[in-house]
Amino acid sequence: MSLKENSVQPDASRWGLVRRGISSGGGSRLLWTVVALLVILLVNRAISPTFFDLRLVNDRLIGSTINILDNAAPFVLLAIGMTLVIATKGIDLSVGAVMAISAATAVMLIRNYEAGATEFYYQPGFVMLIALAVGAICGLWNGLLVAFFNLQPIIATLILMVAGRGVAQLITNGQSPTFTDETLAFIGRGVVFGVPFPVFLAIGVLIVVTLLVRRTALGLFIEAVGVNDRASYYTGLQASLIKLSVYMLSGVLAALAGLIVAGEVKSADPHTAGLYSELDAILAVVIGGTSLLGGRFYLAQSALGVLIIQALLVGLYVSSLHPTTNLVVKAIVVLAVLLLQSPEFRQFATQPFRRTT
Amino acid sequence: MVMQGQDKTPLLEVRGLTKTFPSTVALAGVDFTLHRGDVHVLVGENGAGKSTLIKVITGVYQKDAGSIVLDGKSINPQSPKHAQDLGISTVYQEVNLIPTLSVAENIFLGRQPMRFGMIDMKTANRRAKQLLLDFGVDIDVTRNLSAYSVAIQQIVAVVRGVDLSAKVLILDEPTSSLDRPEVEMLFSVIQSLKQRGIGIILITHFLDQVYEIGDRITVLRNGHKVGEHQLSELSRVQLITEMLGKELSHENGVGKAKSNQVFANPFLSVKGFARRGEVEPFNLDIQPGEIVGLAGLLGSGRTEVAHLIFGIEQNDGGDAYVNGQPVKLSSPRKAIQQGFGLCPEDRKVEGIFAELSVRENIILALQAKMGWFNTLSRSKQDALADEMIKALSIATSSADKPIKELSGGNQQKVILARWLISNPDLLILDEPTRGIDVGAHAEIVQIIKKLAQQGKAMLIISSELAEVVDYSDRVVIMRDRKKVGELEGEDINETTIMKAIAAH
After folding, report:
1. Which residue in A215, A238, A295 is closest to B375 by CB distance?
2. Closest among B2, B4, B27 to B17, alpha carbons compared
3. Is residue A336 part of a domain?
4. ipTM value greater than 0.90
5. E strand or H helix at B42, and its extent?
6. Contact residues of B toward A, CB < 8 A
7. Domains located in chain B, CATH noted
8. Per-residue pLDDT tens over the stretch A237-264
């Protein structure tokens, strides 16, 4: 198959065949994603010689690589939910707002607990469950709009993206309340075996969700709905329920990310918690190779996409570049990563170096 | 054919028109002649070339060879706008006007009468009113177009087209969503257009309407013109014979041997099944091991029957019984739970999951039936896929190849395999052999027969009469969204089927 295609290429030198042979394999995108991550890490190392150094301070590992993992954790959670939503040909713009709602809910309830209030008094563990349930309700709302009322996903979730921050502000009365409870704080700043707890949380969720979708038929159903909605209806799949459940999962994971952020700073700021994080989550999914047109999805690669973005941000932080250049540099590097993954661009870029005989 | 002493020069004369697409010849040297004041009907089954012919005449496609002469002048329309400027207007089934503008604005859109640099709505309204009155339609032209029925909207589109100084008006299935009084209103408009000497090309699937309004008819099949007739001299049976490409034998042909099977109680029985605007009430019984063919022209309601039974569309009248028990067939999922399966007509849009592998395409229906948690193991999936690839001789290098890389015939076999592994009691096949090569065609017919021998009830829609005669134990005839008859055993041959389709 691929040989035949190549033979009609005018520039199909032996080199071209080898290159295209590699790139036509299923794992090629994964390969280039890993390469991009390594390149960014090595550039970081070149800029800052101590980049890979790790120190143990008070039973806690300190170093840039740990910072990358710690910063990545909430985004990995968002990216997992986003990957599944995108696989059904949808999108979830509301995750940042859901983070804010969840953080606001948890912090307000934990303040009740700390003050020993007479009503809405719950133990910290239950408070977290309530916050996750609120996330599930947000996802249910999105899912109902998309799956049962046939609103376009980008519009359906835009509604909650805008309204959600308002809801979070209502919950906190427009304030940024703080708390001291260590149980809730642990979710964001706890340390286990020297490594921040959110890292374990993200890895754990990644494994559980991967098993859930790949060891059952759920993953196949999600892909089928994303590839051909109509055919999946004709085949007896409950496309609406499948869509509803991925939006709900996305809501729950966003709520969990909101708890991490709240725990980290021991407060909930409804204006800034999770602000623009939906965009980074979408970016990570795309870098990971899941198409916005739906269908095939790659959870682990979405997590790699998050690491690329975070490695870049931490790199910018340790470099001596002025912070005002951060956004532009980030955009340039992300563009470079996406181009690196494009077979068309690689062909275009390597053209001058190929033998033409 | 005979030119019926037409002494006038034709209004539109198409000669040797050829249009080729990368994989098919859509039009092969087609001639078409339209006279002033004639309604010339264009008929043909799917893929006959009707829409390609229209699209070349209206400048959507560019011709590869041949000539188009309008009013004695050779023309070569480059775009629909160009064709319209030349005097060729088209009214599509889906009216392409702007529903939120008024009737008058729609009629004069892009050429509004101006006064002092402003749009002169008063004049526009008055002239629009008059234009419509000329056709005997008296409506408030200042109201939004969307306030009116599809029929009125179509008439507005006609009026707009004609007012753009049209010489030729093309009506593409204008009546398919209209009820009878609306059809009559449209036909009276067409009559007055005829009197003005406008030539009308009408595309329709409704035989009764062909005879009611048409003067001449051109039959296309597989990109060729197979006949041109004065409708007053053409019998219905002759027409259908030409459309389906079959010879009518006088001795009624050899009927098939009566099937020896002793039928038990019907597996599926529907009584008075109907959906307004799509299928009129019909009864149908299918026994286990019986093959029921569903014959009729395109648009006769064949696919709609399949969709009703499979729950894709919901019936608004009648009852269904499976093994004598009443059932609700309200969704494909419900139908599948009753043991039904359906291979849809439009394989690409409704059948295959293009990016998914052959294996995944095969196991999906079974897995959907089992639920997401009760997962088929990978080894079980491989075994099922390999078994089916072998049993149906599906040509693929691997079960993990994306199905989009397979040929049409092999894709069809994969969809058959999808249902076979879920072991259905009733299999509905909508045009199972369309667009696939001869070899795969024969294989699929063999599979159909084998499945019936295994005791499955089969309901098969096909435009290929020879095929229908070959495998059917019983043939249900559809015409104009009605079940109009049933043929059984020895009575089934191509001639009887065509006569039944034509009868009125």
Report:
1. A215
2. B27
3. no
4. no
5. strand B39-43
6. 310, 312, 331-333, 336-337, 342, 344, 349-356, 360, 364-365, 367-373, 375-376, 397, 405, 418
7. 12-234 (3.40.50.300), 264-339+424-504 (3.40.50.300), 352-423 (no CATH)
8. 999 999 999 999 999 999 999 999 999 9
